[in-house]
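Z., the sequence and structure:
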Amino acid sequence: MTTMLKSNLIGSANLSPHGFEEPKFLDRRARADNRGPDRACRGTTAWNRWGSLTLRPIESMMADLFLQHLERLDDASRLSRFGMVADDAFLRTHTERAIGERCLSIGCFEGGDLRGVAELHDLGPGRWQILELALSVEPPFQSQGIGKALARRAVTTARELDAGEIHTCFNVANHRMKAIAQGLPMTLDYDWPFVTGTQVLRRTRG
């Protein structure tokens, strides 16, 4: 499950997707009811299968982990994420952007490995006022609620930044991302073959 940035088309703690610290949140919830980090992930047992997963911010010193995550995406995932089968040079350039000053990234970590990412890109014109959300989850970890948990945590982060709007763009065939966007909830606008999702976080500043 991946999403692309429309503009691409030519804290260290265990966190719940709702933004509060809860030590060993994912691991405890998985043992309790097999639902993983997001209570909406009904019936999944994959969190126990893959062990303890944590959501936390991606810091600038994690560039190598970020790049390794992108390199593990298969061709279909890269196509969905970037609108093309991105080569390694493109991934290196994107990594620099995603850990730069105009982007906040949240990662899903399995031990020392980064398995999923939510990126919030600042589109301007004001600082952190209009954000674009992009998600990427490695193929073996897809369909397990990771994308949903990352998206919800990203929205919480956007609210903490007092952002006005959050957007995402994905291919109309990306049914997983459509379900996530609808669940946030986002208003969907279809412009074949793309879908743009929008959530207004506040109408007026303050």
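The helical segments are 25-33, 46-50, 63-71, 75-82, 88-98, 146-160, 175-183. Residues 146-160 form the longest helix (15 residues).

Let me know what you think.
H.
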